[in-house]
Amino acid sequence: MWGLPAASLTSTILDLVAHHGAVAVFVLMAVDALLPVGGELIMLLAGALAAGALGVGAGGLGTGPTAYVALATAGALGYLAGAMIGWAVGRRGGRDLVVRHGRWLHLGPQRLERAERWFDRFGNVGVLVGRLTPLVRSFVSIPAGVFGMRLVPYSLLTLVGSAIWAFAIAGAGYGLGSSYERFNHGFHYVEYAVLAGVLVLAAYLVYRLTTAAKVTRRDDSTR
Known about the structure:
Elements: H1 6-32, H2 39-50, H3 65-101, H4 109-122, H5 125-131, H6 141-146, H7 151-176, H8 180-222
Helix pairs in contact: 1-2, 1-3, 1-8, 2-3, 2-7, 3-7, 4-5, 5-7
């Protein structure tokens, strides 16, 4: 999703949810449980569609409170499914997985250390708090598995946290209702800011990889 041009991000999500409804929300939120792909935007737009903001329903669900509940539930369950996959990955791969492949999971050693401090501070409740905390939300799943948290309390706390979050964000979108066009125009500026941030991050990663390669070649030449 990050590879899309900024101007098409909102329209792409709207198109997916409008055509595939709860299925699209479920899949997108499952991904967001592992990698930050804009869960807030997904649920906000799902709520706006449920309110009939664009004059269309969501994947045959129509509009109104029933559509809102269906989409919010799909978001919460999708997030739970992705979170359980993340837990299983962390449980099976352990710290070695993060050390070797953390950069592809947006979960490097430093971020894992912060997650460990997070769990040390809050214990199992850290899962619930993390699901309600921006930016932290997508970096709880794999560490929970790495640190050996038991599946049952992890799943229950994730379900509660994701349900509260999904219904709240979708409810905000639902409340926008007829004001959606004004909201959509203003949100483009947020999209541009996100795109700029992604480009800066990409440039930084290229710089780090280039620097590391130069250091490696220099070390090899001195041996």
